[in-house]
Amino acid sequence: MGNHVGNGSRQAETFKKSNEKLIDKLKTLRMDVNRSVISFVERTTNFQQDSKIDVTEPTNAHSLEKLTRFTSHYVSSECFDGLGSIQKMMQNMFNIWQTLRRNAMKCNLEVRRFFAAIPAKLCFFYFYTGELCTAVACLIDFVDLAESTTAMEAALRWLMFLGETELIEKKLTKWKVDETSEDMISATRYAISYMNQPDSRVEMLDKLIKLRNKIEKDDDKSSRRKFDLASYIFWLCSTLSNVPVGKSLNECDFPDRLSHIKNAVCKFESIIYVEAPGFLPYQSGTSVNASIWSILEENWRGNSLGYVSIGSTIAWYFELRREWAHVNVTTAQTSDSMSIMISNLRIALKSASFFRILQMTNTLAYNVNLIEDFDYEDIAKLMRGSLINLLSLNTAKDGNSTMKETVMQSEARTTDTGESYQSAPKTQNTNMIILDDQLEGPDMLNEKVFHDVVLSCTCNICVIYHSSSSFATEYMMSFMIYSNFSQLAIKHFNDEFALIRKRELLRESQIMMHGDSSIQPKPNIIQHEIFGMCVIRWLTKNLDSKECANETTMEVFKNALNIVAYLKYRTTDLFLTLRQLGRQLEFPMECNFSWIQPIIRKPRVKPTFEGAGSISRAVSPIGRRAKLVKKVTTEPFDSQRFENNRLTMQREMQYFAHILYREWRCRMYSYVGKTSKSSWEAAYGWAESTNIGSRNAQQEQLGKCKSGLVTIPGVHHFNSCGQNMPDDMTLIQIVMADDKTIYLVKLHADRDPIIMPLAHYHQAIEVMDKFTYLLEEDRQIVSNHEKYKFEECWDRRKIVDCQMKKCVENTQKHFLGAAASLLLPSGRLGPNATALAIKMYNMAKGGLLPGEAKELVYQSKFIHPKTWKSLVLRYCEMRGIDNKSKSQLLLLRKDGFNAMKQDQTIPASSKIYTHLVICPYLSQFCWERLPIFAKFPYVVRHISIHSAFSQLDDMRNQNKQIPLNIGLENAFYILDPDNNLNGTKRRMLKYINKFNWEGSVGSAPKLTEVTDALSKRDAFFYFGHGSGSSVVTQSLIRQTTCNAISFLMGCESVRTIPQAHGFDGTSVIQDYAMAKCPSLVGCLWDVQVVAKHTSIGNNGKENLPITTGRMISYSKKPKIRETEPNSSNLILASNYNNITSKASLSQEPIKLKETTKIQKETVSKTPKQKSLASNQILTLRSETMNQEVPRKAITETRSKVQKAPPHPTASQNEEEKDNLKRTRKRKLLVSTIPNFCKEHGAKKPRTTRPSSRLIKAFHVVQKS
Predict the structure, then answer these.
(1) 1051 flagged as catalytic
(2) What pLDDT shows up at residue 189?
(3) Domain made up of 960-1090+1109-1119: CATH architecture
């Protein structure tokens, strides 16, 4: 008995001593952690105080250059030196804590709260350095020790972010739940049930939306908890639409992802404004520079909960903003996404967190090339240089750094469990490449600059790489960007990611589940996103370069598809995109017709004023096609597999019709357009593959997402809309496919859609290069007009004018070819023509589609027989029609002409309209001036097929009263708001004062005046530079309901600047379209001509008519005077800017009451006519004569003083007409040829009869 007592006392004494030792270890660990974290905070604070980042600058490329210079400064600062050793030290202390945490949990509450400082400060460090899984493990330990409600809510939020739903359910059974946390716990449970139980999604969706509305209506506007909860619920709601929509969810209104992630950021920014104002991307008024020390020690006085709260808050803010940027790119919001990403980099530099700087630099470097915005190549080069600065081992120097010796350059390598590490020499810390002060763009090094990551190396990169899986993944993303997503790089990333992921899952199981096998750890969602994004870019590059898929390609593809499918509700966009890229890898479906081939491009010199005198370019061809090389396929075509893919795509279109993710939608729907056997399904695919960004922006305004809200809900609805179009309306879409091939889609109520591939992407590039080159030539002439005589300046513009005309003709001939006739408006066929179309369809043995046969019969009346035969041959090549049927079809042109003549379905006096929807890349070209439209001048433009169908629905249902005319007395104008167009302002005021309009002159009007003008006036006029975006901002337009016909008379006011495929481009058109503007008139090119006076209607007494979307131009021989450069000074005379009109298409269009008169102004004795290249004036119909007013050609030179004979009258015979034409031509030639020879350095003719060579050369500028 005594022995037992003695043994018990000894055991108690031993236990007490062991406990004392454990307590001492915990105390020592607490001091070490505290000392190390304070040292880290002090280093960070020193850099934050030294680097004063200007947050007042705009988020543009110029500010980005300064931010990259701050990046260079960061990696040469003391904050970066020794960062690897701190990381290694913190990792050792975290490992010690894992061995002691169970003992700490057994202590009483007071002791537990004392030791809770250990996981609290570890949690802060790992949150600040981006190692989320380790940080969340420390956060959970802190909750278990301190029993803090605030920390528990933060833990719930982060576990939900990482997808650890099983761990959440287990922890909720153990943690004490406060009444104040009921809403957050309810929202979490609703979201988990929504994800895991598809049958309950309707109920859970309704509960989450009601909870969101409840929080929004909460009266407590200043509570931190309220903003925290609101941000969390908005973030949860932003992911709810990422589910397939079956019958139960088909009628549900999902929360829009874009608007809800934006609201989540805005709500949480309110917390940052109070707790960490230095981390805001803008100046808050309380602090400009971030100082983490003042936040922790001064505000929280070193409180453990303060470290947890600040670390979690800053990390959550970074992750929300990163996801916000990703969603903006995914939904094709170009301007917003670039601004957000630059702001994110600014915040990362203010935080002085190496991981965050690398993460935000990677985001920018990845997406800049994806968007292809203005100057994207320079920005991409800048960001690649910044990545090299952060991760390379080359010597570097900038204004604040010192040179350091470096040794190695190569790739990363992670060792697997049990594998021995390769030894490597110890090196100093990594540093930058040389960046000059101007930062015009760092030169990329030819050799590899990335350091070999090995365990024995003690540099910052190697130490952090092996201790942080998040950093390792970001490092590999940087390596992929630097290597331009090469085949070797993706193979290395694929192998490396498997090791990183294995290490991460093992670590999660140990530190978060603590060996509990009942809970399966979830992989890190951010790492999976990064790997999926890199594989998408690599596959896209392979498809663009026409590389065949090999075993390695398919292995990486399948691995990526499995990885992004783990948390599909968070990575739906990546999963859908990868699956579509897999289809295209298996079945590329390239378009290899004889007329769609790359062309041999000719080098061009930069346009100059002197270069405009060269005539050789005026007749240069658009390009020469390369020889057709037919690819020989060795593998048989698996038709069954292809049909299964088609069925899968149809299901995707049905289940995910409510979401508009750019990469997936523009690829899959255009692939449907290329491969579908149904013409209606194909046309539906082409329509839905476009205008993605504008429709997402519209959904963002509405705050909800639903099939049919901004999309066409299915092929049947699209078919119904097409067949209900007015007979006098033909809708033509010129669209770019996912492989950048140009397609034409034609819709008319009488026939099935007609789809034809038009041209190769290189052909489109050549057309636009030639076109923009001519515009630039004309711009150079005008900008240098003061260096030369006025007459000589206009002589040069004449030459550009002829070049432009030739360019337009060549575009129709070479780019469109036989398909140019498809641009003509169609009509309804009569019985004879319909019978012949059926005959053609049967004759082709089903090769021709019914709509194509109808169109061929209709075209036989309006186009030349050779053109008609060329069109038939194109269809035969497209449909694989045999030679016998082809020869029979070619003989039916005359039958078609006779059938159309017998039916007489279209009266000669009727007006039929062509409505164009042009892809952004080709939108600046003057399609309305193609020769094919000479007899069919009623051409309009729409922003999208969706807007055209929406207007037709409104007119049929009479939902809105669409104005058919406007009163000029109810108008508002803005004239020269920048106050730098004095001459133009003076002349325009003299004219505007006739109408007694209200407006603003020489200064910007008030915002209320602009909103009232757009919403309450009948007409809104802007005269100034560009589109007036500095006065009428994008946000102001989108938040206003625009009821006024808007006229933007500025240089390139409605020009669309193209971006990468799938983006809508940058243009003010989309803003006015979202504001429901009835009609928009503006300029595609520069306005470079001055007309003194223009009179509209009957001196303002009559109403201004609205034609069906046509830009209205009024002119009669305007006198030309020298212009102010870049001035907008020709009222209502613009290029071809026919944007969405809401006038009735089936009614008879309103005619002008009288032709417009322009008062003459004497500048010189010789009248000058306006140049086609500066501003092409559209023809106009006169009510009294019912014929086109002739468009004036280019000006005469001063040498043409001799008056030409009068034009022949209708009573003269043909012979007299020819003689008179030859006489006028000869006199013009004789009077002009001396100046022509002098200008081009040729010898003057000795006689009045020039040589044939001179006549041939002069023929280019002889048009008058």
Answers:
(1) yes
(2) 94
(3) 3-Layer(aba) Sandwich (3.40)
